[in-house]
């Protein structure tokens, strides 16, 4: 058994250490991937802090998505089919993740990459693009007996995901109200073509948001922030709003007035991509990733801020944490 370099987390909240560990062997239904690149996502940061829905035994290699080449296949039709192919991949919930020279994962969690897509973009095909498409799927499936046109409010909108939601809203003719926290972000998004952007740091933020939310009937909210912003979002939204919380960028407690549930007909949900995908079969996921590949040159493209070798992963994480709206930070292997 050979050795490989990996970024290893020994305890929640501790710095990563570059270590030499054994190259894993794929079992039935699994593949071994020689990793090319992997992004740093908010979900990775939450996992390293011990606050994510997936828990693994320490020491562990983080990294939820990436790209690479399948170099060894376990038993089964699909592993043999992917063998030798360049793939976009997601980490198994049972094993080490993507931040290593090699990774074993289920063949079901790999998708072959079109020749039109470079391996950097391929490394970011799962988390954000699938989440963006899932949001519009959720919107479509929510009850709408009056057949009213309705829109979306999305927070942390200067992120890579937020930008995808803006572009998909335009494609599907669904109004998107983007909430950011700095004036510079307002200007960036408007320069990129966003029509409705509000700044949560403005003194009149709540009145601005309420006016535009009622005008556009944006009664479906996707919130990545949490904290005190949640109540403000509910106060601004039309009656019967659906609020989906999918992140916790604000570590403060989220408090909601009972009246928002009792008298306003509002609904509060949690959204977790892993749970959403559990209800989808492999063929649905394959169809979705093909759709992503067709849109990756435009609506679902991701801006890359910087790329680092694995040996500088700690520096990469700090740069990403302090500049999330500047684009993704990639790790190359």
TrEMBL record:
SUPFAM superfamilies in the record: GroES-like, NAD(P)-binding Rossmann-fold domains
Keywords from the UniProt entry: NADP, Oxidoreductase
Superkingdom: Bacteria
Name of protein: Zinc-binding dehydrogenase
InterPro entries: ADH-like_C (IPR013149), ADH-like_N (IPR013154), ER (IPR020843), GroES-like_sf (IPR011032), NAD(P)-bd_dom_sf (IPR036291)
Gene Ontology terms for molecular function: NADPH binding; oxidoreductase activity, acting on NAD(P)H
Gene3D superfamilies: Medium-chain alcohol dehydrogenases, catalytic domain, NAD(P)-binding Rossmann-like Domain
Xref: SMART domains: PKS_ER
Stretches assigned to the Enoyl reductase (ER) domain: 13-331
Stored PANTHER family: QUINONE OXIDOREDUCTASE PIG3 (PTHR48106:SF18), QUINONE OXIDOREDUCTASE PIG3-RELATED (PTHR48106)
């Amino acid at each position: 058994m050979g050795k490989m370099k990996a970024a290893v987390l020994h305890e929640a909240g501790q710095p990563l250490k570059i270590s030499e560990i054994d190259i894993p062997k794929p079992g039935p239904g699994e593949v071994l991937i020689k990793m090319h690149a992997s992004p740093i996502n908010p979900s990775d940061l939450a996992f390293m802090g011990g606050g994510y829905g997936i828990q693994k035994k320490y020491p562990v290699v983080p990294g939820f998505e990436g790209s690479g080449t399948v170099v060894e296949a376990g038993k089964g039709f699909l592993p043999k089919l992917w063998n030798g192919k360049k793939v976009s991949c997601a980490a198994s919930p049972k094993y080490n993740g993507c931040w290593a020279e090699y990774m074993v994962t289920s063949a079901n969690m790999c998708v072959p990459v079109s020749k039109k897509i470079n391996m950097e973009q391929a490394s970011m095909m799962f988390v954000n693009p699938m989440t963006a498409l899932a949001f519009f799927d959720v919107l479509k499936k929510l009850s709408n007996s009056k057949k009213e046109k309705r829109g979306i409010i999305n927070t942390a909108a200067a992120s890579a995901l937020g930008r995808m939601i803006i572009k998909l809203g335009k494609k599907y003719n669904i109004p998107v109200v983007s909430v950011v926290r700095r004036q510079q972000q307002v200007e960036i998004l408007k320069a990129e073509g966003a029509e409705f952007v509000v700044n949560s740091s403005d003194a009149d933020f709540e009145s601005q948001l309420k006016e535009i939310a009622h005008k556009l009937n944006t009664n479906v909210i996707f919130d990545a922030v949490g904290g005190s912003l949640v109540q403000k979002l509910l106060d601004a939204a039309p009656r019967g709003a659906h609020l989906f919380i999918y992140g916790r960028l604000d570590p403060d407690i989220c408090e909601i007035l009972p009246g928002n549930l009792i008298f306003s007909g509002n609904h509060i949900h949690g959204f977790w991509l892993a749970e959403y995908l559990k209800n989808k079969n492999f063929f649905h996921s394959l169809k979705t990733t093909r759709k992503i590949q067709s849109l990756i040159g435009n609506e679902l493209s991701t801006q890359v801020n910087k790329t680092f070798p694995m040996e500088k992963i700690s520096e990469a994480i700090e740069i990403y944490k302090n500049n999330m709206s500047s684009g993704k930070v990639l790790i190359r292997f």
